[in-house]
Design goal:
Blueprint lengths: L1 E2 L6 E2 L11 H11 L21 H13 L2 E5 L6 H10 L5 E6 L9 H9 L9 H9 L4 E6 L5 H14 L3 E7 L9 E4 L5 H11 L5 H13 L4 H10 L5 H6 L4 H4 L12 H9 L4 H9 L9 H8 L4 H9 L4 E2 L5 E2 L2 H13 L3 H16 L1 H4 L5 H9 L1 H10 L6 H17 L2 H11 L10 H14 L3 H17 L6 H15 L2 H17 L3 H17 L3 H18 L2 H17 L3 H15 L3 H17 L3 H18 L5 H17 L2 H12 L3 H9 L11 H11 L4 H8 L3 H14 L5 H10 L1
Parallel strand pairs: 3-6, 3-7, 4-5, 5-6
Antiparallel strand pairs: 1-2, 8-9
């Protein structure tokens, strides 16, 4: 028995009358629906809990829905597509809303029937149901929320295309893990929650986000990629499992996060992902499971290695089905929950060991230039940074402790850790490999080299010399001639830390000898520039100029920007020693621009600009820059070389004598408030004046701020960059001791 949706009469429901007891009731219902806004019908799933987060996203989607007739929300399993679509549809006004649920359908022939049932259309004898559906909706204004289309994409697309072509009042809002590719379709990818994930967790768990719990909950949500389904299941579990224990068991999340009361596809995280996995072809499924062992993301090259064959079409299919996502940098990655599911499938197919071997061999090949070259090319360093997370995973999980390749993986980690300033992590890696590797292991020289660099950073200079000497001896014993240029340079750095300049110069000359013997122009240039610095410190300016002058052309064209910047900085110091402030200032500005992307590396260049500023009479500017760099060196634990320290202290004394106590204190205070970006901008801003009195350009900027112009508008008006305007505004506020833009506007009106 059924109940008529209009008059309430009970009737024997059949395929020809799904919602109404008679044709008369059906026609009457149609007239009521189209008579005015008071009879708008809204049929949406009801939820007992509140909708959390995505406020900004909803506003943007409302705008899209007003402009387009076909909008599809796509995304991974459990990301909240349906809930978002229901919330969006519920905000539609003066339009009938009907829900077409496709998730329970198993056959293509059922799609048109589902659409027809949702809008109250019945089959006429001798007429195709699609034709009847189109005739029914041709005069109606209705939004169809078509939910869970991914397993019937082609059939759903056919119906939607027909509706949009023949029924001008019909609008479609679809949810799918794959775009429908319908005519006029606008696709909106739905991603995991960010800040909203913590709110969702606390609300579903029924706890308050105390400061004690907030960081733990935030970390847990981040590990769950902010996926609402996973967050909600974890929140429910947290009522009986302590947060720290729950966080510690997230590698078991596919077994852990389940709810027997939920619908079939969302009963567990595993079931939600399995729904997408089961729609893959055999080749797509093979690539999917093999990508499980690259948790740090991957490009096409890595995917090809992992799969053992062409991957472009397969990867595009996985992306279309929301099983991999593409990041802004062009690389792909799996959400962690999806990756863990893929790893289960990999073990089921007994492929884990084979794929692990492929990945480890590829990573070791990526690190091989470390034992065959005196200096890595910028692109080689970039790849190591890019694959750091994959190397860390392989180091921890894919190779045995005594496998020599683990030592190579460790050297990749060490290189990146030292570049990024992660010294504690680098020390932990070294402790795991140095004592476990054989004395004649091929990759041991690299680990010893990084041990020396780390010891030098931590001012354990005797140990730095010991490790570097052992690295040189090991390489010579193993006839690893190609890396001796670099290893002697590392040994020179260790001696320099001890203040042993004669041995520093000796090691650099040995480095140059090996570099010349092996035809390594870049290595020779780098060691020559370092030797030039030593000669400068020893007072031999002419030899320093000869060495650095020969090295600069090679380093400018073939070395990494931060490496070349060091040589340009040395050239500036040589000009400074000769009293050529104009050349010194130009060199320091050039090195600042070259190393601006490396906060630690740029400090010396900015300090060089500060020296020139003080010596040329712009003392307040120089004091600000010196104070800024001193503050950052203390924060980042970046030591000063003794010779350079003496130069900076002497400049500071000159400035103190030249400025009033109040002006010096004001400049110091302003410098300590700078971050590295503003310090760089100030060092490169030739219009920064010596006093708090503003330059002509700064006064123009202040006038435009007072007129209510934004930084972008000011930049367009003056024909300068947005960052330059931002630097001007920051420097003016600092000089005038103002905190806000409103205060700056008030100051402008008063002056």
């Amino acid at each position: 028995m059924g109940t008529c949706a209009l008059c309430g009469t009970h009737f024997a429901a059949g395929p020809s009358r799904a919602r109404y007891c008679s044709n008369a009731c059906r026609q009457r219902a149609y007239r009521l629906r189209t008579a005015g806004t008071s009879t708008v019908v809204t049929e949406l799933p009801a939820y007992a809990d509140s909708f959390v987060g995505r406020e900004g996203e909803l506003a943007g989607l409302q705008s899209l829905l007003r402009k387009h007739r076909m909008l599809t929300l796509t995304g991974a399993a459990g990301v909240g597509k349906t809930r978002l679509a229901v919330e969006l549809a519920g905000r539609v006004r003066r339009t009938e809303v009907r829900t077409v649920e496709l998730g329970r359908l198993s056959g293509a022939g059922q799609v048109v029937q589902a659409f027809a049932e949702a809008v109250g259309t019945y089959r006429h004898a001798g007429a195709a149901l699609l034709g009847t559906l189109l005739a029914e909706l041709s005069g109606r204004r209705v939004l169809l929320l078509v939910d869970n289309c991914e397993h019937l994409v082609r059939e759903c697309c056919d119906v939607v295309d027909a509706l949009l072509a023949r029924c001008p009042g019909v609008q479609v809002l679809a949810t799918s893990r794959e775009a429908l590719r319908a005519i006029g379709e606008v696709v909106h990818p739905v991603r995991g929650l960010e800040a909203g994930a913590v709110r969702l967790f606390t609300e579903r768990a029924g706890v308050s986000a105390t400061e004690e719990h907030a960081s733990a909950i935030s970390a847990l949500c981040a590990r769950l990629d902010g996926i609402p389904l996973a967050v909600e299941l974890a929140a429910k579990l947290s009522r009986s499992v302590p947060l720290d224990e729950l966080a510690g068991r997230l590698d078991e999340r596919l077994d852990l996060l389940a709810d027997a009361d939920a619908g079939a596809r969302h009963r567990s995280l595993r079931a939600a992902i399995a729904w997408s996995h089961d729609l893959l072809t055999g080749q797509e499924e093979a690539l999917f499971r093999r990508l499980a062992l690259v948790p740090g993301g991957f490009g096409l090259d890595v995917a090809h290695v992992v799969h053992g064959g062409p991957v472009i079409a397969l990867l595009a299919a996985l992306q279309a089905k929301s099983l991999v996502v593409r990041e802004d940098d062009g690389r792909f990655r799996m959400l962690e929950s999806v990756r863990l599911y893929a790893e289960e499938r990999l073990r089921e197919h007994d492929e884990h060991a084979v794929i692990a071997e492929r990945i480890v061999d590829w990573l070791c090949g990526m690190g091989e230039p470390g034992v065959t070259s005196s200096i890595l090319a910028p692109e080689q360093v970039g790849v190591q940074h890019q694959e750091y997370d994959n190397a860390r995973y392989a180091f921890a999980r894919l190779v045995a402790p005594h496998d020599e390749r683990r030592l190579m993986l460790a050297t990749i980690l060490l290189r990146v850790c030292l570049d990024r300033g992660h010294f504690t992590e680098a020390g932990a890696v070294l402790m795991q490999v140095l004592d476990q590797s054989a004395a004649d292991a091929r990759y041991r020289v690299l680990a010893l080299e990084y041990a020396s660099l780390l010891a030098g950073h931590e001012e354990r200079h005797d140990e730095a010399v010991k490790y570097a000497t052992e690295a040189v001896d090991t390489a010579q014993a193993g006839r690893q001639e190609l890396v001796l240029c670099r290893l002697f340079r590392t040994l020179a750095g260790a001696y320099d830390g001890l203040g042993d300049l004669p041995n520093t110069a000796w090691a650099l000359r040995r480095s140059i000898e090996h570099g010349v013997r092996n035809g390594n122009d870049v290595g020779v240039a780098l060691s020559s520039q370092n030797l030039g610095w030593v000669q400068l410190v020893l007072g031999d300016v002419d030899t320093a100029e000869e060495l650095v002058g020969a090295a600069l052309p090679v380093l400018r064209t073939r070395a990494r920007p931060d490496v070349a910047a060091a040589a340009v900085h040395t050239s500036g110091c040589i000009a400074l020693e000769r009293g050529d402030l104009a050349t010194a200032g130009a060199r320091f500005a050039e090195s600042t621009r070259m190393s601006a992307a490396s906060p630690r590396a740029v400090l010396e260049s900015v300090e060089g600009g500060a020296l020139v500023a003080v010596l040329s009479g712009r003392c307040e500017r120089g004091v600000r820059l010196l104070a800024a760099c001193r503050q950052m060196r203390a924060t980042w634990a970046v030591p000063l070389e003794p010779w350079w320290r003496r130069k900076l202290l002497a400049a500071q004394d000159v400035a103190r004598e030249s400025l009033s106590r109040a002006a010096f204190t004001r400049a110091e205070h302003a410098g300590r408030a700078m971050d590295v970006r503003h310090a760089v901008d100030t060092a490169l801003d030739e219009e920064t004046e010596r006093d708090a009195v503003l330059s002509d350009r700064q006064r123009v900027v202040v006038d435009l701020v007072a007129q209510g112009r934004t930084n972008a508008q000011i930049a367009a008006t003056l024909g300068i960059s947005h960052r330059t305007v931002e630097s001007h505004v920051h420097n003016v506020k600092t000089a005038l001791n103002l905190a806000t833009r409103a205060q700056l506007t008030a100051w402008a009106h008063a002056h």
